[in-house]
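HUMAN: I'm a chemist; might I ask for a sequence paired with its structure tokens?

ASSISTANT:
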Amino acid sequence: MKKGDLFELDITGYAFEGKGIAKFFIDSLLIGESETKKFVVFVDGSYPGDKVIARITKVRKSYAEAKVKELISKSAFRTDAKCKYFGICGGCNQQNLDYQKQIHFKEEQVKEIFERIGCFTNFLMLPIIPADKIFFYRNKMEFSFADKRWLTENEVSSMQEIADQSFAIGLHVPGMYEKVLDIDECWLQSELSNDVLNFTREFFKNHQVLPYSAQKHTGFLRNLVIKQSFITNEFLVNLVVQEENERLFANYKKALLASFPAITTVVFNINKKLSQVAVGDYEIVSHGSGFIYDFISKFKFRISSNSFFQTNTSQAEKLFSVATDFAEFTGNEIVYDLYSGSGTIPIIISSRVKQIYGFESVLSSIDDAKINLELNGVKNFLPMMADLNKSFLQIIDEKNLPRPDVIIADPPRSGMNPITIKDILKLKPNRIVYISCNPATQARDIKLLCESEYRLIKLCPVDMFPHTYHIENVSLLKTK
């Protein structure tokens, strides 16, 4: 087997990150070993029950990776994708899979990851919590501008000259970060979001304003970020650009509001950095307050252009309900909330505990957290600045904070820094509730916590992102 080979494969399983699994055994004599070896092929674009012809893209000693070249027979789990960009855009890689099967596979994958990576056996696996809304559920979308538009296979095979190859606004093609798929609709946010996307494209093309080029470091347009609340009906448009242009800002805002009076605030973020991030060095609020407000349960939250807020509001309520139940609060606990963001979790649990201390590295999120605790009349939550890639024990000592009974952690996909894990082990709270959008790094971190002081009690996955392979997972650890 080598890269480029074609194989006919029966797909019998499903792996994390949305790849079908084909398994067969190889003669161990061929690889110089004395026993039969199981060989696995991870096939991108396939589901259990498929029979495919797959092209090998990578070969290792015990496994290979491949992509579907031809579908011989379809799995009974397949369905028709609604989005015309499905299969090119990497956003909804499971949109052609029946939703009940999506959540079934996600639950199985979480369990398998903890058994394989964490080597855990004796824990309670609760059923996954599905989403009520599987389309138009996101409250935030981030679109990228690019001076290199990704051409589809149909465009390339047409042999015709393609106009506007140097202007695109949409989503990155997987693995092609310098090129963007120019889209006019997305099924993840709202129809109004699609309309604003298309208006923005036409406005700047008509005004001959160029996208920023990461290679040349020239151009003006970098990102379009849209945030909205389906509860308050507030709508924020954030245009991330390379430099200030007061006249262009004024013209865009005027035309935008004339076309979409439902927009409540318009912000321009000025990002002069070389890195491709949708966060500016500073921002200019051109219309409205620069914020929107949203609710989780009865709690109200202010959301700025750059602060983090869970992107699926209705599912976030379920996620935090599970986390609250796992924490087993009695009313007397001191709680540390790591990666506390805009204060969502501390505010939701505030009536159930004695005191919460939040640790967060993004200043705008801390500012939002301070506003949010005032909005909700919370008196027992103190947000503070802390770089959780370094030890935060010094902050605890300097402020003479009481030691925690419970730690809640909701880190980014990369998981917790080993230094943070060591700090937690030194603090030794009775319970840890670890929330993660990446079960693999979560299992890795929990394995370290459980090597000495803790044991894993239970897990509960929550589907925050239908039609993608992403999954949120809540875990409970207790001291041994």
Summary: The two ends are 48 Å apart (CA to CA). The chain has a mean pLDDT of 92. The longest helix spans residues 99-116.
